Amino acid sequence: MAKRPSSFLVTLLRRGAPALATATSELSDEVGDPTPMRALRRIQQMSGPVDTAYRDNLLLRAARYVALVPLVYRLFAVPGTFGVYVSTHGIVGIGPVGLVALGSVALSLYGIRWMLRSAPFRPQHAVRLLAVDLAFTLLAPLAVGALVPASVFTEAMAVPGKHLLGEVALLALALGMPAAAALAVVSFPVRMLASLFGTGHAAPGDAMTGFPAMLGVLFTASGALVLIGLGTRLALAYGIRNGRIAERARQHRILHDSVLQTLEAIALANKGDPATRLAEVQRLARAQSMELRQTIENEASERSEAGSRPLGEKLASLAAEMARDGLRAQLVIAELDDDTLSEVRQIAIRDAVRESLRNTLKHAGTDKVVVRVEEQEGGVAVITRDHGAGFSLDSRPAGFGISESITARLNEVGGTARVESAPGNGTRVTLWVPF
């Protein structure tokens, strides 16, 4: 019989924050669907089944930071309670109570430092640290009960009590609700034993006075786990969905700016000697096949190598590329600092300029264009200007090339594109990206 997959919420409450590492498993497309739906329906989808054997190491490392909350709570609550004790009772019993407060602060500081260190996360070290912290949590009340006078016992127990509340929250977030609930149950006989040491009687009623606070911590920790888990899963679902949309748009641009442009160039080839036309078609096809192969097999390294060149060299290389296709681009570049523009924005503006120049080659009826680069309004502007046929912006809406390969590409990096044209007056395209 096949094992039924576990619910994400059940896994989260059972294992604590480390269960966030399973958040991307079995994640259905419906979770990231932006279509409005009832809140309970959305929650039901987010809390759907997960593969408990799956672990995303990045999410696992990020989950450890959730434990910072109870550690920071202890770092402030324990010294504060100790200060109240000293202001009320002076130096009576200050030795053991002070040592417990100092030990709690030391453990909390070490835990915070360990969480924030840059070294790789090792679960076995976390287990040892939790074991030491748990041992201190159980022994501190016994030490206070055995060493402080009976007259200050109740107030003195408030100091290890604050540490205990933080430990319950820590276990709930780090190991899950069963571990936290077990500590809460064990803390009652420990408190009765401490009372027996300090006052001579177990006092079950006094031990139960901490039950409401303990229950509140368990409820708050479980609520925090649920909110963090569902929020993380929803964010991941939206991120995956938007990533797919962005990748699809990028692939469409590649096809439009490469394959489609080459096919149109072949279709627009000059009529003439068949052998000459065949040679031209073969040249275009060979160039396109090489470009596609580079894109598929070595895109990352290609962009990395391009990143070593400033924007001016990228545009000069682009001008040489267009010259081979019959468009003479005059490049006018103002003096720019090579480090003023990020590589992502340089590539975006270069590819947008390529699409603008190809539009000139196809539609303007001219083989000359001026490309000017200058600083403008806190960014870099690249202006392409031709004196070709031009067109009416009102009667001819923007096609895929302008709306996606130019405008959308620049919008993704915070830039803008403006097209100005009129029949008989050529076309001017202004591309701008911020520094």
Automatic annotation (TrEMBL):
Q: Which CDD domains match?
A: HATPase_UhpB-NarQ-NarX-like
One GO process term, biological-process aspect: phosphorelay signal transduction system
Q: What InterPro entries does the entry give? A: HATPase_C_sf (IPR036890), HATPase_dom (IPR003594), Sensor_HK_TwoCompSys (IPR050482)
Listed GO MF terms: ATP binding; kinase activity
Write the record's keywords in alphabetical order, separated by commas.
Answer: ATP-binding, Kinase, Membrane, Nucleotide-binding, Transferase, Transmembrane, Transmembrane helix, Two-component regulatory system
Name the source's superkingdom.
Bacteria
> Which stretches are transmembrane?
65-85, 97-116, 136-156, 168-190, 210-236
Where is each Histidine kinase/HSP90-like ATPase domain found? 346-434
**What protein name applies here?**
ATP-binding protein
Instruction: Please tell me the species this chain comes from.
Output: Amycolatopsis azurea DSM 43854
